[in-house]
Design brief:
CATH class of the largest domain in chain A: Alpha Beta
Number of strands of chain A: 10
CATH superfamily of the largest domain in chain A: P-loop containing nucleotide triphosphate hydrolases
Shape of chain A: globular
Order of helices and strands of chain C: HHHHHHEEHHHHHHH
Shape of chain C: globular
Largest sheet of chain A: 6 strands, mixed
Order of helices and strands of chain A: EEEHEEHEHHHHEHEHEEHH
Helix content of chain A: 25-40%
Bound molecules: adenosine-5'-diphosphate, magnesium ion
Number of domains of chain A: 2
Number of helices of chain C: 13
Chains: A alpha/beta (about 230), B mainly alpha (about 350), C mainly alpha (about 325)
Largest interface: B-C, 39 and 37 residues
Structural class of chain A: alpha/beta
Oligomer: heterotrimer
Strand content of chain C: under 5%
Distance between the termini of chain A: 33 Å
Number of strands of chain C: 2
Number of helices of chain A: 10
Strand order of the largest sheet of chain C: 1-2
CATH architecture of the largest domain in chain A: 3-Layer(aba) Sandwich
Structural class of chain C: mainly alpha
CATH topology of the largest domain in chain A: Rossmann fold
């Protein structure tokens, strides 16, 4: 199966700092791939490089076979990529509805997707007229994911969705991401190894700006030494 | 990150080599009145008439042009300390320039103090008041985002301009003339002396700013310019450093204002006008923001162009335009182009070019 | 919400103070009414400059120091189009002065929009990575605009000489003659305030602007071309400022001092209201406008001739001293 996203050996600078020094990631069509690595390894920067927010200076990125590196962020998003950033980044002054409408790429996107979204996240329906800033952390995270589902995206980049959330909420979120993965491919960044192993079929480990290992998730789960070495978790 | 420290005992020879260009320039400027005098067969002291000297002749005329350059250079260097080295942008630098000028003028003309003392007191008070003014303006706004400071200075300078423009005591818009100056300093009697006074002021300002910027304090200034939050998180109280930079810049701009008043022997609201804010900004950016000699080169270059083009005409297919009429317009356009395509200015671009050609060992 | 309470109290106190001073200073309700109308008139003109300044600052982090210049250019273009001679002479084509005034205003708006578009696309765009230079650049543009105006129209101020219907009509109240045109401008300003508010609240572009004020990057990541929105908003802001200059010209004429005066006054408005806050800008405009009108009354026949011109700056300094985040601003 050809991958939906193919990142090959990208290098990214932030200011004068060389943050990514060769990262390659391949996301299979129709699956969930997780990016693993310690804090500061460069996972967020990888997602931001794909989105063109910190454009890579070297390497190539192909989405559905088309090169996207060098394009502007909005053009990359319009090709069908949804971004759910770290710390959610929902618009606190906008209502839930406005947050969702903002994500429309064609008029009517929101109306078309509303049923699916509210099925995944029933809470959002009754919060629809509240300002995003009034939502709890878990609700904000759900809104951030829902927002990425409004247009017809074929790939979602989700950065640490479980960060700072209560276990019950995390379970709901896992269920929702599993459901939506039927329809879109996902590149996930997740520090919580339990969550990652539940969701993903394949993994890529990043260390100090380099992608080191990749493979099938079920192989990694059994390989304690690899986990210990790169992630430092048991 | 590298630090650009010379690795060893600085001997005078070493120092001279590092500053050879500046040294030759300085000697040239010291001899300048005599060189022009010799070339044009005019006396650098003016023309004697009775027991006085009349300020006529090419040498004397060129001395004035250079004096104006020196004053603008001091103003621009002070602006550069604040903007170029500390990253704080002011749109009201004329405030300091004008206020010091008014203080000196008031002291000379409106008090009974004997001329020599009035000059000394006026100069000291002018500079001191500028320091206090900088401190106060800074305390109010430097805590806030940079744009507030820019706005605030714009407003305060404009207010001062309106105020002095309507103050009856100082003859409002007309201003007043300075009639009492010690003979030795009076540029209409003894231009050459004043020439050297301003030249010395430029040299002192230059050396002082270079010393300051290369000191640990200056390192903090530059850190603030690069990233204030980071400087703050490194444990520096950035507010205090910005205040210091502003206070010093204000005092230096005040010193330039004093010299301007002595040169023109006149005090008026034009000293607070927007052009004394715009000029140093232009000169700094065009000469090279954040470089030591950039503001001087900018001041010299722009003022010479101004003087040369004053009487020139532009012939656009029959439409004759006086350059003097569009000089400010041309300056503005040069300024905009510099900001966009040439942001490091003359000296900055040259330094970059040299650094690329000769990578540091 | 103590912050909002404090703001409300501050507004009431300032308004009360202004009304009090004005009432003490005027001999009849008619006098008072004139001051009020004049204050609202100036407030609306200020709003036309300040709204663009504020929205652009909130969205793009650019304080456009050339905003006042657009007001000035608007005034010159409208003056020129209305009167015989000059660059544009429409007296022969459109003899009816009222109709010609409408055309003159449209010409001014188009000029403002075009110049705004050029400034954003041509000059500001390369500098989004160097914000301090953007500030410096707009300052430079304001100087060039001033010089260009001087070059084209000379430095002599023009006062509006053509008397035509709208400008010359008055109505009477409390034994005083009130200018219908001023009332009309105030009404139009009110309509504009509401229209822009509705646009910001309801339309998609309004949602994008409000979202962009919060987090530009995320708006882009949703697939929205923020740069295009910048251009649109900047262009509109400049067009509105030029519109202000055009409708002010029948009263203020056209002069080279307009740009700086209105820039500083509207900066005072924006800081007073809270940088980037739309409601703050609307309220601030009215407050500053009234303050200027009251100062003009008070200054008559006294030695404080400079008072009205200093008033907005005094207010600005005062606000920065007491509450730099302004009435509706969040302190950041
Ligand atoms: N704006 C920035 N300036 C300097 N360094 C940065 C910046 N953003 C991120 N970094 C550095 O880049 C590295 C990778 O960061 P990031 O991609 O956020 O890591 P992760 O998401 O894997 O925790 C870190 O070492 C971080 O300190
Ligand atoms: Mg991260």
């Amino acid at each position: 199966m050809t991958p939906i996203l193919e990142v090959r050996d990208i290098h990214t600078f932030i200011g004068q700092f060389h943050i990514l020094e060769g990262v390659s990631v391949s996301v299979a069509s129709g699956g969930i791939t997780v990016l693993l690595g310690r804090n500061g390894a460069g996972k967020t920067t990888t997602l931001r490089s794909i989105m063109g927010l910190t454009p890579p200076t070297r390497g190539s990125i192909q989405f559905e076979g088309n090169p996207i590196q060098g394009k502007s962020t909005h053009a990359i998003a319009q090709m069908g990529i949804g971004y759910v950033p770290e710390h959610r980044a929902i618009f606190k002054g906008l209502t839930v509805r406005e947050n969702l409408i903002l994500a429309e790429r064609k008029t009517g996107d929101y109306a078309r997707k509303a049923d699916f979204i509210f099925e995944l996240f029933p809470d959002l329906k009754r919060l629809i007229e509240l300002p995003g800033g009034n939502l709890s952390g878990g609700q904000q995270q759900m809104l951030a994911v829902a927002r990425a589902l409004v247009p017809d995206n074929r790939l979602l980049l989700i950065d640490e969705p479980s960060e700072g959330l209560a276990p019950v909420i995390i379970e709901q979120l896992i269920a929702a991401i599993q459901r939506l993965a039927d329809q879109v491919s996902v590149l996930l960044v997740e520090q919580n190894f339990r969550v990652a192993s539940k969701l993903a079929q394949s993994y890529v480990i990043i260390e100090e700006g380099h992608s080191r290992v990749n493979g099938a998730m079920n192989e990694l789960v059994g390989d304690q030494s690899l986990i210990q070495r790169y992630l430092g978790v048991a | 990150m590298k630090t650009m420290q010379a690795p060893n005992q600085p001997t005078w020879r070493h120092w001279l080599r590092g500053n050879a260009f500046l040294f030759i320039l300085l000697i040239g400027l010291i001899l300048f009145p005599f060189i022009v005098g010799a070339l044009t067969d005019s006396s650098p002291f003016g023309v004697p008439r009775g027991d006085r000297m009349i300020m006529r002749g090419e040498s004397v005329r060129w001395q004035s042009v250079l004096i104006e350059v020196y004053i603008l250079a001091i103003l621009a260097m002070s602006y550069n300390l604040l903007f170029g080295f500390t990253g704080v942008i002011s749109f009201g630098h004329a405030l300091f320039f004008g206020v010091a000028g008014y203080v000196l003028g008031l002291m000379l003309e409106f008090t009974a103090i004997e001329t020599g003392w009035a000059l000394l007191l006026g100069a000291l008070a002018g500079i001191a008041i500028c320091g206090v003014l900088g401190l106060v303006v800074g305390l109010v706004t430097l805590r806030l985002k940079g744009v507030y400071f820019a706005i605030f200075t714009l407003a305060v300078a404009e207010m001062a301009f309106i105020f002095f423009g309507r103050w009856q005591l100082t003859r409002a818009e007309d201003g007043f003339a300075i009639t009492e100056l010690p003979l030795w300093l009076d540029p209409s009697q003894n231009r050459l002396n004043f020439y050297y006074v301003t030249l010395i002021a430029v040299v002192i300002t230059f050396l002082f700013i270079r010393r300051l910027v290369n000191s640990p304090t200056g390192a903090v200034f530059k850190a603030i310019r690069e990233n204030e939050d980071r400087a703050q998180s490194m444990g520096f109280n950035t507010l205090n450093y910005k205040l210091l930079s502003l206070t010093i810049a204000g005092m230096l701009a005040g010193a330039a204002g004093l010299l301007q008043v002595i040169l023109n022997k006149k005090v008026g609201p034009e000293l607070l006008g927007v052009s004394y804010t715009v000029d140093p900004l232009l000169m700094t950016i065009i000469g090279g923001i954040g470089t030591f000699s950039g503001p001087i080169i900018g001041a010299g270059g722009l003022h010479f162009l101004d003087v040369f083009l004053r009487d020139a005409e532009l012939n656009l297919g029959g439409l004759v335009i006086d350059i003097a009429n569009i000089w400010a317009l041309l300056l503005g356009i040069i300024f905009i182009l510099t900001v966009i395509v040439f942001p490091f200015g003359i000296i900055g671009t040259w330094q970059r070019w040299r650094a690329r050609r000769k990578p540091p060992a | 919400m103590t912050g909002q309470r404090a703001s409300l109290i501050a507004i009431v106190v300032i308004l009360g103070g202004l009304v009090g001073v004005s009432a003490l200073n005027s001999s009849s309700p008619g006098d008072f009414g004139i001051t009020l109308l004049s204050g609202l008139f100036q407030g609306m003109l200020l709003f036309l400059v300040a709204s663009g300044l504020s929205i652009v600052f909130g969205l793009m982090d650019v304080l456009n120091l050339a905003q006042g210049s657009y007001f000035m250019v608007g005034a010159y273009v409208a003056y020129d189009a209305q009167h015989a001679g000059g660059l544009i002479d429409l007296t022969a084509v459109i003899p009816d002065p009222n109709l010609r005034f409408i055309i003159a205003v449209i010409a001014a708006v188009l000029a403002g929009a075009l110049l705004g578009y050029l400034l954003e696309r041509g000059l500001l765009r390369p500098l989004y990575s160097r914000p301090i230079f953007q500030l410096v650049l707009t300052f430079g543009v304001s100087l060039v605009a001033l010089e260009l105006v001087k070059f084209i129209w000379t430095t002599t101020p023009y006062s509006w000489t053509e008397l035509f219907g709208v400008r010359e009509s008055f109505f009477e109240l409390f034994g005083q003659r009130f200018s219908t045109y001023r009332l009309f401008v105030v009404g139009m300003g009110g309509v504009l305030i509401v229209t822009i508010a509705l646009l910001l609240q309801r339309s998609r572009i309004g949602i994008i602007i409000r979202a962009g004020v919060e987090d530009r990057e995320m708006v882009q990541a949703l697939g929205i071309n923020v740069r295009a929105v910048f251009t649109l908003v900047f262009t509109l802001g400049c067009a509105i400022a030029a519109f202000g200059g055009a409708i002010a010209a029948p009263f203020l004429g056209a002069s080279t001092t307009l740009g700086n005066a209105f820039l500083l006054q509207s900066i005072a408005v924006v800081v007073l209201g809270g940088m980037g806050s739309y409601s703050g800008t609307a309220v601030g405009s009215v407050l500053v406008g009234l303050a200027i009108a009251v100062a003009q009354d008070v200054a008559i026949g006294t030695d404080f001739a400079a008072l009205p011109s200093i008033t907005p700056m005094l207010l600005l300094v005062l606000v920065l001293l007491l509450r730099p985040s302004g009435l509706f601003g969040n302190s950041r």
